[in-house]
């Protein structure tokens, strides 16, 4: 009995959220198509606003390319930060040596 109650609650949820109407409209449109599409799943996805399989694959490839570029930029940033730290440290060391030798920092 509890299982039936869960089913009914889920059906009401789908109906109240508009899912049943949306699916019904898409399936009716598919039924009324004279030339049935090769992929019914892709047809439904497109009608519901999702990308086609080819669009999805293209987006996945673009995402992979962008991830590679991002990783390269992060690595370059880390390298540049390391170089900056080295320059700061070498300047501090040089500045410290000049003041220990009694020379002016400004080069007077």
Description:
- This protein is 79% helix and 0% strand.
- The chain is mainly alpha-helical and 108 residues long.
- The longest helix has 48 residues, at 53-100.
List the helices and strands and how they pair.
Blueprint: H1 2-16, H2 19-32, H3 40-47, H4 53-100
Distance between the termini: 95 Å
Classify the helix fraction into a percent range.
over 70%
Order of helices and strands: HHHH
Oligomer: single chain
Low-confidence stretches: none
Number of strands: 0
Distinct helical segment count? 4
Structural class: mainly alpha
| Basic shape | elongated
Rg (C-alpha, Å): 32 Å
Strand content: under 5%
Q: What is the overall pLDDT average?
A: 88
Largest sheet: none
Give a quick precis of the structure.
With 108 residues, the chain is mainly α.
List keywords for this structure.
AMY1, c-Myc-binding protein, 108 residues, 4 helices, mainly alpha, nucleus
């Amino acid at each position: 009995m509890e299982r039936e109650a869960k089913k009914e609650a889920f059906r009401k949820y789908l109906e109240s959220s508009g899912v049943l109407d949306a699916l019904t409209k898409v399936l009716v449109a598919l039924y009324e198509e004279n030339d049935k599409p090769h992929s019914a799943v892709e047809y439904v996805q497109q009608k519901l606003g999702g990308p086609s399989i080819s669009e999805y694959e293209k987006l996945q490839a673009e995402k992979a390319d962008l991830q590679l570029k991002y990783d390269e930029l992060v690595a370059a940033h880390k390298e540049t930060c390391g170089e900056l730290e080295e320059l700061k440290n070498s300047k501090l060391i040089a500045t410290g040596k000049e003041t220990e030798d009694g020379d002016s920092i400004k080069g007077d």
